[in-house]
Amino acid sequence: xxxxxVVDTKIKNNHAYxxxxxxxxxxxxxxxxVYRARGGSMEVRETTLWTPTRVVIIEFPDLQSARxxxxxxxxxxxxxxxxxNADCTLFILDGM
Length: 96
Fold this sequence. Notes:
The chain has 3 helices and 4 strands. By secondary structure, it is α+β, with helices and mostly antiparallel strands. It has one domain: Alpha-Beta Plaits (2-Layer Sandwich). A 4-stranded antiparallel beta sheet has the order 2-3-1-4. The longest helix has 17 residues. The model has no long low-confidence stretch (mean pLDDT 97).
């Protein structure tokens, strides 16, 4: 069963965030991740809980693969680039 890493991101430093994207993508792919959405245009219909900014959705083969990516030593080296240059909400969503 697939699992999805979903991130809503408000970028503060575009240049540094571009570097993060270049480094993070191959790591996600190593763990079976496939980018399904990456900051594309959105049509927001309701905002009772939150207003999304820039949404990224990465599909993984299963929950364990998504966790392995986020907890990997490789991603731990890249993660500060995201954290220092963007405000984010990140969660793993178990698929059906």
